[in-house]
Amino acid sequence: MSLFGLGSRNQKTFRPKKSAPSGSKGAQLQKHIDATLGSGNLREAVRLPPGEDPNEWLAVNTVDFFNQVNILFGTLTEFCTASTCPTMSAGPKYEYRWADGVTIKKPIEVSAPKYVEYLMDWIESQLDDESIFPQKLGTPFPNNFLDVVKTIFKRLFRVYAHIYHSHFQKIVSLKEEAHLNTCFKHFVLFTWEFRLIDKGELAPLYDLIESILQL
């Protein structure tokens, strides 16, 4: 079983798994990720490989983290419902509203599963847009690429924050906490390495993040 594999009961994903950007570079970087993750050294796994384009590295990892969160949330869809989680929250102090700036311009209050559905649809549309995530090797990345990646990671963090605050006991009962913690540790180390999420956004899980980073 791979580091991010789940038991057979949990192969249900929220939506089909996405592949890394095509072209030899994307496949090559994906192999590097798999090899370094296999070593178990997550701090090493997140670092930009020598001589690689930072944007290519961000692109391949964005797809990877999207897939990880997809799989994790997929194990909770029967427990995270509009009735159990009427708002997308991370404890009593933090509530997230949805807006994508295009079809929904003014933030709206939605249930947690609806928020995640909107989010995954939005991320998928970004990943499928070749003007943002080029599929052909050598095609330049847009000037706003880092901003898009930061927004994706900021919003993926909110899914982790909701899972930890609202569903951790269920994760424990499913014996998946080690998997969740490893995925989140990998996510935190990557976002910290590339400064992708503002510190204020991390507040709902900051104690856990501090322990991961050993600040």
Structural class: mainly alpha
The main sheet orders its strands as 1-2
Distance between the termini: 32 Å
What is the beta-strand fraction?
under 5%
In total, how many beta strands? 2
Reported for the largest beta sheet, the result is: 2 strands, antiparallel
Output mean pLDDT: 86
SSE arrangement, N to C: HHHEEHHHH
| Helical content (DSSP H or I, runs of 4+) | 40-55%
Q: What is the gyration radius calculated from CA atoms?
A: 17 Å
Could you say which overall geometry the principal axes of the C-alpha atoms support? globular
Query: DSSP helix count?
Result: 7
List low-confidence stretches.
1-14
Task: Describe the protein's architecture and organization.
- There is one protein chain.
- The protein has 215 residues and is an all-alpha fold.
- The chain contains seven helices and two strands.
- The protein has helices at residues 24-38, 42-46, 54-74, 112-128, 145-173, 177-193, 206-213, and strands at residues 88-89, 95-96.
- A two-stranded antiparallel ribbon has the order 1-2.
- Strand 1 and strand 2 form a beta hairpin.
- The longest helix is centred in the last third of the chain and has 29 residues, at 145-173.
- The radius of gyration is 17 Å and the shape is globular.
- The two termini are 32 Å apart.
- Residues 1-14 have low confidence and may be disordered.
